[in-house]
Amino acid sequence: MFESASFVLFAVTLPFASLLLALRSGLQRAYCYSLPVLPLPALMIALLSDPGWLLSLPGLLHGGLWGMDDLRRAFLLLTAMLWLAAGVFALGYMKGYLKADNLRRFCVFWALTLAGNLGLTIAEDIASFYGFFALMTFAAYGLVVHEGTDEANRAGRVYLVMAVGGEMAILAGLLMAAQLAGSDLLADLPATIAGAEQRGLIMLLLLAGFGVKAGLPLLHFWLPLAHPVAPTPASAVLSGAMIKAGLLGWLVTLPFGEVSLPGWGDLLVIVGAVGSLGGAVLGLRQQQPKTVLAYSSISQMGFITLMVGAALASADVVVTLFAVMALFALHHGLAKGSLFLATAMTLPRSRIGQWLMWLLVALPGLSLAGLPFTSGAVAKLAMKEVLKPDHFAFAAAPYLPALMSAGAVATMLLVWRFLWLQRAVGKIGRNPVAMWVGWGLSLAGSLILFWYLPWHGAVPEKTWPTAITGEAWSLIWPILMATLMAAVAPRSVRQR
Amino acid sequence: MSLASLLPVFALMTSLLAAVIIFTLPERSFRLRTLVNLGAAVIKLVLVGVMIWGIVQGRAYEVAFTMVPGVRFVLRADALSMLFAGLSALLWLLTTIYAVGYLEGSPNRSRFFGFFSLSVASTMGIALAGNLFTFFLFYEMLTLSTYPLVVHRGTPKALRAGRSYIIYTLCGGAVLLLAIAWLHGLVGDLSFRPGGYFAEVEDALRGPLSLIFVLLVAGLGVKAALVPLHGWLPQAMVAPAPVSALLHAVAVVKAGAFGIVRVVLEIYGLDAASDLGLLAGLAGVAAFTIIYGSARALYQVDLKRLLAFSTVSQVSYIILGLCLFGPVGVAGGLVHLVHQGIMKITLFFCAGNYAETLGVHRIDELDGAGERMPATSVAFTLGAFGMIGVPPLAGFTTKWIMGTGALAVGMDWVVVVLVVSSLLNAAYFLPILHRIWFGERQAAWPQERRWGRLETSAWLLWPALITAVLLILAGLLANLPVSPLSWVELIVAREVAL
């Protein structure tokens, strides 16, 4: 039933329909309470429907086609889950932190951004994909500048300039590809681009256009400005879910599996390495916990860029790599969302309570670094399994394992930096119930749900608990090393 | 001659009659005047609807008689004329509603609405004209009937703008007449016909025909606001908002663009025009106008003036589409005739609402307008995003079709023009939207008026909301058989694809 046309249409139009609640100021409370409901139908579709359904909407735009395959299912799951957790969290956050007179506006932009983010995940025709993507881009501006401070407006301006530039690059790339393909469907683009005379230009446009969202180095400037200034629940979805829309854009348009392009592979591995390590280095120098998290997102997207590069370089590992990338995206999205939400939580009064709280705050961070038996461990091991240099023939391939190890250390260092800064600003006080529930949902999603999720068949077959036990040392040493560095570094700096 | 074949005449007469009646009505008879205005608009919309239905069925409506030997007066409803007639009939109804709300209470209403109806009658004539001569008659009638509207306020500024308008358009008309007369002398009376007349041109005629084309486009380009003939348009924005809406979206600039469409498609023919190398030149002018208009819009402080420069830019999309000499490009250009009309009329309605309700004319006075007038601001936002070309709005459909049309014929540079123009559109519209929704209101509104529960008068609000919904539907449901795009595809199938 969940893949029936009427239910899918209901799931997509629900956020739009919610705008009716904005018509009367008397309905404002009702609107706030509806926010967590908006992504629920989409979550049901992701969890309960079998991938492979298609919904044809011939009258829509230039002929609409929506559907869900294994890849989109992972993205839909992440998106809906994170928006749900953040929506619940927002209920409490709005009461405590946002000015009451702007709540209605916040709800409207929230619903529109959500609609775009969910819609683009299941769109399989070019026009509706691009339409939902643009909706998300422009509506998210309302979330970024919501606070109305000079800082927020400045961040919003940078965001908008880069986002519009990105939109235009995407438009040009899609136009060229669609014209050559003579088709309005995304599925026809990769093969067309692979054989196109202007392949290089089209790929560059799409890589750069979607790269703005994905925080590719040099296209990332807006990200550490905009993610932190947004209200906390919005930061969580910006950094957890929306950043992945850029990745999905790459995955559904670029010529994966059609040709092997070692040159592009090398380029993207370099870009990814710069992103993952450079993002970490810049992040360590930040003074705000949320900014550190934003740089950590750039760094993690760098890892995914490595995999994108590898997948472009060798057509025959694409299926596996796609599954691993989806896994990684899901893992990072939920963990990062949880970390962002944690920044607004206050600490309990009791000592033990505080220790427990810190442990829970830190767990998704440790998961990012690959702590055994977390989602990060699975994602890391799966990535390692696929990125073995002997699977690849392009020039940068031999450096992949070293890059991954260095990246793991860098990730953990950033987590320490975040915890250190968060401790300095952490306050003692009570949290609204909704914030506890929202944060708890994201935490549970990050730590527990992962084990029960429907996985893509192509993820390397393993019994993960055994695999993790076997590889425990390789997972733990980067964490220990980073911890050691984190313990020593501040002292050596201070002594100088 | 059956009654049905007279439908074009009836469509024309409804607004002519309305004009005559309104001129004779006393100033204070608000109800009767409004009744005549709206009644005529509704009847015309129905008549146009009937003709559209008939044309879908394959019927044709034509009325023709000879005025002087060799010169015939032809009114004909074909698919192309219905594109323009349908647009103007629909938007006339909405603009009339809006104008009633905007102007009732101010002096000289009978004069205003009389000329208003006359100019719509002229527009209808332009749409239905079956040959160049008939076209020219109504084209000049439009000039004369819109002049009193531009100077309606009677202020020195308005009179100055009116003078500039009348000089520009009369000179344009003179050039047009010269070109039509020359063409008539050369080849005789030419009714518009799909494919045009000059598929095979004798070498001796190539030179004169090219020159005539340049003159025709120059004459028509004044109204279409092709750079450098656009000077009157930004000045004419001193006119009342409904007049600006009419000028920019339906009547004047569209008349020019529509004339160029007729000349290119149905006098010269696409192939001949591109053979003579005329389309390449026209494409260059159109592309330059698109960029120039957007670039000038960036520097405006007055909202309506900004919209005027935006019109300069957007109308040339229609002309650029023609120059992509392929069915897809032509479809993109023609559909923009409708799309630009709907989007721009929405924006002008909203600008008028801000001015009438809050006294806001300048962009920097708009801070916080979204909170005070949410419905108007939503409509304005949709119009602005439509102009930028964000899907699923009407502007995106245009841009996407023109882009694919250009690439299909190897004119990749057009995509660059489209992208640059979109960037510029974003650069001047997005800061306005930021002010409207996120700007903080410091001072009181310049001149605020209250209308009970609604944010502004219902007469002003509903037309803007209706056109805003239309501009979503035109893009969102572009593939449905009732969309402007589907109608344009029918035109292209019947008239252009050879």
TrEMBL record, chain A:
The chain crosses the membrane at residues 6-23, 30-54, 74-94, 106-123, 129-146, 158-181, 201-222, 234-252, 264-285, 292-313, 319-343, 355-379, 399-421, 433-452, 472-490. Coiled coil: none annotated. It is a multi-pass membrane protein. The keyword Phosphoprotein does not apply. GO terms for molecular function: NADH dehydrogenase (ubiquinone) activity; oxidoreductase activity. Residues 123-382 form the NADH:quinone oxidoreductase/Mrp antiporter transmembrane domain. GO terms for biological process: ATP synthesis coupled electron transport. It comes from the Bacteria. Keywords: Cell membrane, Membrane, Oxidoreductase, Transmembrane, Transmembrane helix, Ubiquinone. The keyword Chloroplast does not apply. It is found in: Cell membrane; Membrane. GO terms for cellular component: plasma membrane. This is NADH-ubiquinone oxidoreductase.
